[in-house]
Phytanoyl-CoA dioxygenase family protein
Amino acid sequence: MQLYRTLRSSSTSPPLFQRRQEVRRFEARGSQCRKRIMTRSVSTNNQAPIKSPKELARLQVSSLEEQLMRPTSTPIGNPYHPREEQGQALATLLSDGCVYLPGVLREELCDALLADVDYRIAEVDRRRSETAFLGGAPSRYDLKQPLEGVTLSAVQDALSSGLASILLGASGDSALLCELGVIASTPGALRQPVHPDTVCTGDADEKPIYTSFIASFIALQDVTDVMGPTCLIPATNNVAAHTALCGIEHQSHIDLLASSPSIRGTIRKGDCIIFDSRTLHCGGENFSDLRRVLMYISVQSPASGATGLPPYPERRTPPSAYSMLSEYHNRFPLKSYLQWQG
Ligand SMILES: O=C(O)CCC(=O)C(=O)O
């Protein structure tokens, strides 16, 4: 109820009639989702069964959040060329906590990477290895990639596009590779609740993780809205936004989502979004019949006076370690990325 009151009182809301229709559509879709979840939770196919109560609770939160954010959500815009517009790209990353860089990875490497990912996912499915699921959520895979072969070529190609200079500008010369892998959301993946990856404390010496998400899809396939693109809320990499985002039952949480413009990462194959780990974001629901695949390359600087990163990212609860093969931890300085070899 509180949600509907907020929606009605919002000055940017469409007329009430239209809003009622939207709410009805939203409720119908919610019940379709619920049905789908219940069906999947008893299904015997090779998908891991969903733990219904937890998934349902997450679905309720994320559906309400989507409803709140929809009026001010737009497809991502303002791309900056990674080589020619590095200054603007860096300034945008620092101020907004995210930036859009088109064409960082060549098409043939996207295709080769995708073939490798398809093979690895098929292996995971065959072995029914649940450790490959992102946060335990079936339909979302998180594969830590070895820094060799096609992955190494893709990483070095992307970083050479100007991405490395922007990441060094944001995180500093001592930045180290701290996360490397691929996330894939498969058809039916639910929308995630809005979250940051690390919590912002306001400490002046705080070192965010800068993550580059690079889209890699089958030829000519871009991330469309139905594939559940990453949704980001610019300029929320700060204490005020993190304090407000304290649970959907709180007015500050509702107000923040209803009043902050958000962008949907409807990017093309080979494009990249860099974001600060403190920027509020979520993966969308995948309504399509295609797998959405993103390679991630993340870097972070050690704290002042330290030479390496801690075993777990600060302010992330163990065992949520850095998402990378553990033997790579503290081994790869960003500035020497051309010498990397796993
Ligand atoms: O799926 C996505 O686009 C984002 C995933 C994400 O935000 C996360 O797992 O923390």
